[in-house]
Amino acid sequence: MLVYGQYWNDAGQRSAVGELVALAKDQGDRRAALKLARLMGEWALTLTLPDDPIVTAVPPNPGKPDHLAATLAAGVATALQAPLALDLIERRFATDRLRDTPVAHRPALADAAGYVVDAIAVGRNVVLLDDVVLTGTTLGHLSQLFRATGAASITPLVSAQTRVRSLQERSG
Fold first, then answer.
1. Beta 89-91 vs 53-57: how paired, if at all?
2. What do you get for the CA distance between the two ends of the chain, in Å?
3. CB atoms within 10 A of CB 135
4. Which domains are present in the chain?
5. pLDDT digits (tens, 9 = 90+) for 116-150
6. What gap in Å lies between CA 92 and CA 4, rounded to an integer?
7. SS3 for 139-164, per residue?
8. Do residues 110 and 141 make contact, with C-beta atoms less than 8 angstroms apart?
9. Which percentage of the chain shows pLDDT scores above 90?
10. Who is most buried in 30, 73, 115, 118, counting CB within 10 A?
């Protein structure tokens, strides 16, 4: 997994990336989302990625109208001049938010979302975008599904990494 930036700085304040994520994700600020997508695209151009990738995003809970990961994927796909395939992963069921779930219960929650990977992933190099990562449960789950489907490679890109808040949350 490749991470663009940290959500929090050393002083416990949101970093510049964290501010963009918060504005885009929590406040629905479209300009912040587009700025972060542009920055992620520029960053993706500096990375060593597999040839001929297809770009997709972790899908949102069903019924969620706007989703930051999809905007980030579009920015990265544009920068890489790669196909964008937001329908590559289907999420069949709504679940509680992972960040509100004890770490020990997160794998079961990711499984309960009913993710299905389209067979078009077979033999493809997949670049998988997510907005924020805490423990990597969702990205790990989806990477396993892509491998089982026969994807040639999976490269997760994330805009920001947060930190686990407490030992109690980690032990769940």
1. unpaired
2. 24
3. 17
4. 2-171 (3.40.50.2020)
5. 999 999 999 999 999 999 889 999 999 999 999 99
6. 29
7. HHHHHHHHHHHCCCEEEEEEEEECCC
8. yes
9. 80
10. 73
For the stretch 13-29, pLDDT in tens is 999 999 999 999 989 99
| pLDDT for 98 | 81
* Pairing outcome for strands 125-133 and 153-161: parallel
The encoded tokens of residue 65 equal 């109208």
- Order of strands, sheet of 153-161, starting from the edge strand that comes earlier in the sequence: 2-6, 153-161, 125-133, 53-57
Token digits of residue 14: 């949101």
Report CA-CA distances (Å) from 158 to 6, 113, 120: 10, 20, 23
pLDDT band at 97 (very low <50, low <70, confident <90, very high): confident
- The sign of the dihedral angle between the CA atoms of 30, 141, 92, 61 is negative
Predicted structure pTM score = 0.91
Separation of alpha carbons 59 and 81, rounded Å: 21
Q: How far apart are CA 53 and CA 155, in angstroms?
A: 9
Burial of 19 (0-12, 13-18, 19+ CB in 10 A): middle
Residues 9 and 28: their CA atoms lie apart, in Å, by 23
